Amino acid sequence: MEARESIETLQERIGYRFKNEKLLLEALSHSSYANENKNLKCNERLEFLGDSVLSIVVSDYIFKHFSHIPEGELSKLRASLVCESSLFEFSKKIGLGECILLGKGEELTGGRERPSIVSDAFEAVIAAIYLDGGMDAAAPYVLSFIPEDITPKGSDAFHDYKTILQEVIQRNPEEKIVYHLKGEDGPDHDKHFTFQVLLNNNVIGEGTGRSKKSAEQAAAKEALELMGIRP
Questions:
Q1: Mean pLDDT of 159-185
Q2: Active site residue: 106, 123, 216, 222, which one?
Q3: What angle do CA 27, 31, 35 make, to 5 degrees?
């Protein structure tokens, strides 16, 4: 893509309109592209800032949502969410790789698929949003990528409602539960799924989530609550 097309495409995908589009241009400009276009800045400084914004937003989220786990587990959970591989996966949801501006050599050697380049650009975009709209704009953007079903290992803060429901139903061997996808909506980068859990073909719970797994968990939770079971 040309620079103008990259800027327009990404703004549509992330649902945020920049007041200062030069910030987004800088965020998308890899050093190889900036070297070939001398009037441009590369995204390395923004990547530095974006890393810090990402860290504080994620830290604040897990601190508030996992109040019963110790600092060591919080650190591990944060690390799993802000590591290069996670950011690369988040980037795929908005097709960030195809919007990055690369130099000719980097383009020819597959830079758009290189996790280090794409994840750095992801952080740079966070910084660009932060500088353009403040934390009120940056935080919702970051949080839109955090899975609803993140599970800190060794923590009892997360309940596997599906397993609990299965254990309850198995007390009566003739009973059978299945999960049914009722529907999905939203753009590819912000899908929402709705699942129903059925007991002998009767709906006993329904739930919605940003992943199929989290939607099934929500359905199982509702079923347990309707049964008077509160895990």
A1: 85
A2: 123
A3: 120
From the candidates 8, 36, 51, 60, which is the catalytic residue?
51
Sheet holding 202-209, edge to edge: 177-185, 192-199, 202-209
Confidence of residue 212 (pLDDT cuts 50, 70, 90): confident
Residue 188: per-residue pLDDT: 67
Identify whether 36 is a catalytic site residue: no
171: left (phi over 0), alpha (psi -120 to 50) or beta: alpha
- For every residue of 78-115, DSSP letters joined together read HHHHHSHHHHHHHHHHTTGGGGSB--HHHHHTTGGG-H
**pLDDT higher than 80, residue 26:** yes
Query: Is 190 annotated in the active site?
Result: no
For residue 19, report the phi and psi dihedrals to the nearest 5 degrees.
Answer: -75, -35
- Given a contact cutoff of 8 angstroms between Cβ atoms, the answer to whether 10 and 96 are in contact is yes
Q: Model-level pTM?
A: 0.67
Distance between CA 120 and CA 159 in Å, rounded? 34
Find the DSSP H helices in 94-231: 104-108, 115-133, 135-143, 161-169, 212-226
Three-state SS at 141: helix
Query: Helix 44-65 to helix 21-28 angle, to the nearest 10 degrees?
Result: 100
